[in-house]
């Protein structure tokens, strides 16, 4: 596929967008989707999967004939990102694109559905709700895409996605895209009424830039200190991933106390808060965006330099998708995982499974070093040390009970205040 394969109204946009040749996944799936075949598209993160399915499928949609193309995504953020990309190209064909995501006003979405938009992009929960209310006309849909399909088919989301697919006409094409879709082909087969053609370009694709994978051995109790010091690195901007929401909230509170320009993106936030955090990060107003795996799928931040794992991810797929936020479309990126001695083995296991080269990095003097910096220590004054040692020993053995009790009361008081 070259630009000449596209609709004529798109050829100028293709060139003005800075694209030269299509990526491998775009080239391979284009003729299949254009001709109405179902596809499983597998390619590395950042290799252009969104345009790979959007461009050929938008060309099969007819103006003014109601809901025809449905795209299901694994998160609200990904849905809004896909919506924006789809609108950029669909408007040149006079097609309407409507996002249907949870957290947004349902009545407003129902009102906009009356305009019969041809393309719908949404999260499974809200889409299924609107189908049951008969506001989405499923009988007209002739194409469905599951973006980040492995996430959509996880426990909890699987029932919603599979239910939606049973309500779509059998003759509609069903396509599935993800960087790790090849690991769930059996589950995908259960959702497809016909056997989709698997297009896996993982081994051949060369679109990914150089990504450096580092680990930083740092005490877990000093995690916030590590994040604070990283934030002061020159030109640092990074997605900071947490495994648990509680740890994220605690770190955000402390970093804000230090006056750092940070924000959070979490599943328990409302739509407006999440959008404000993401917009501020994309505009460069925020140096650290604290998040969970909600931001690990498909999220595209232009020329993002860093991804930081505050602890070892629980699954290799999680590490892979988090790392995929950097090194997109040929750009260079850095992934830093904060470990302790007992968790380093878990990270090395993931690295071996993903065939990654790990290197230790050190945070010293406002910079990252790949070699352990030499820390110069001043000569100790023997007499002074001995004198202080005697004083310390005396304090340890002769501390009055009253003082201990006072300290305990102060400690308890601090707990109550917290």
From TrEMBL:
Residues 398-418 have a biased composition (Basic residues). Pfam families: DEAD, Helicase_C. One of its GO terms (molecular function) is RNA strand annealing activity. Residues 369-384 have a biased composition (Basic and acidic residues). Residues 222-369 form the Helicase C-terminal domain. Keywords: ATP-binding, Helicase, Hydrolase, Nucleotide-binding. Transmembrane segments: none annotated. One of its GO terms (cellular component) is cytosol. The keyword rRNA processing does not apply. Residues 30-199 form the Helicase ATP-binding domain. Residues 369-418 are annotated as: Disordered. One of its GO terms (biological process) is response to cold. Gene3D superfamilies: P-loop containing nucleotide triphosphate hydrolases (3.40.50.300). This is DEAD/DEAH box helicase. It comes from Enterococcus saccharolyticus 30_1. The lineage of its organism: Bacteria, Bacillati, Bacillota, Bacilli, Lactobacillales.
